[in-house]
Structures are given as structure tokens and as C-alpha cells.
Amino acid sequence: MAADSCDAEDLAQSVFLIVFRRLGEFDGKNLPSWLYTITANQVRDHRRLAWTRGRAYDSEAALIEMPSVFPTPAEVVETGEQVAALAEIVARIEAKSRAAFLLFTLDQHTSKEIAVLQRAPLNTVLGRIKRSRKTVAARMAEWARPPARELPLGRAGQSG
Fold first, then answer.
1. pLDDT value of residue 158
2. CA dihedral 16, 18, 19, 24 (to 10 degrees)
3. Which residues does 2 contact at the CB level (< 8 Å), separation at least 6?
4. Which one is the CATH code of 73-144: 1.10.10.10, 2.60.40.10, 3.90.550.10, 2.60.120.10?
5. pLDDT score, position 49
6. Low pLDDT (below 50) residues in the chain
7. In the prediction, which pLDDT does 160 show?
8. Are 90 and 101 in contact (CB under 8 A)?
9. On the chain, which terminus has fewer CB atoms closer than 10 Å, C or N?
């Protein structure tokens, strides 16, 4: 029943282990049929496992090529730097505007709820949120912009 002689030996051992464990369940009738059923089930399970293993090895190359969902160490560092820059920028915003901005952005309160919490007119709160968003966006854009490189001096600009 097994295609490979090594598999046949392994299967025979598995069959005898099962026979040994289940000998107490055997009713004494038709021993060849009982052994054949155990053997056929072991061969079937072995073939299924071999097929599944083969499919897993075939897809291993695809798994290697699949992009990771986890960030690289460089991305982790970059994200940490962005968070630190954002925290510093937000910390420099005036207190009432910062509170309105954070309540709106992080806690997702409505502007009306923030107006009640801050005991301020709705338009004042809307202005605080708008100014804070513009400030954060502009300063984060400045932060993300690469630093300007100095151009090397040409012959005409050299002192000498």
C-alpha cells in the first residue's frame, strides 16, 4: 500500500503501535479485517500528510517573496522619530488650542462637545482646531523635508 519502502516500515510500525494500544477493544472476530482497516487508515493518513507537506513546500517560495506585515527596524525607528517630532510640535501649541486639537483629533469629540468642555463659543473652538491642524501639518512638513545641502564652491568662489 505504501509507495516507498521507508514509508512502509514506518507505516508498519504505526500499525503495530495502534494494534498494541487498541488490543483491549478488539472483539476477537475477524483479525485480518481489523488489521487491514487499521493499515488502510494509516496509509490514508500518511498520504494526506505527505500531500499537505508537499503543498506547503511548494508554497514556501511564495511565502519568502511575500512582503512582511511587520515593520523593518528602520521603519520602527522612523516612526518613533515621527512620533517624537509630532509630540514636540503639539507641545508648543497654546494650551487651549492644544486641548481642543487633541480632544478633536485623538478623542474624536465633536466641536460642539469641545465648546461645552472648554466653556467657549463654538466658533472659537473651530478656530483653535483649524489653527492647530494647520500648524501641525506645516511643522511636520518642515520636519519631513530633507535638509538643504550646501553646494560645493566652484573655482570662482574659492578664496585664495
1. 54
2. 150
3. 8, 11, 43, 46
4. 1.10.10.10
5. 79
6. 160
7. 46
8. yes
9. C
Average pLDDT, the chain: 84
pLDDT at 117: 93
Q: Supply angle C-alpha 118, 121, 123, rounded to 5.
A: 115
pLDDT score recorded for residue 24: 87
What DSSP state is assigned to residue 154?
Answer: -
Q: Please report the pLDDT score of residue 71 as a whole number.
A: 84
- Tell me, what's the pLDDT at 46? 83
- Local structure of residue 103 (DSSP, 8 states): H
Enumerate residues 6+ apart whose C-beta is below 8 A from 15: 35, 38, 39, 42
Closest CA to 136 of 81, 76, 85: 85
**Which residue, 129, 140, 134, is CA-closest to 87?**
140
Buried b (16+ CB within 10 A) or exposed e, 96-107: ebbbbbbbbeee
One-letter amino acid of 94: E
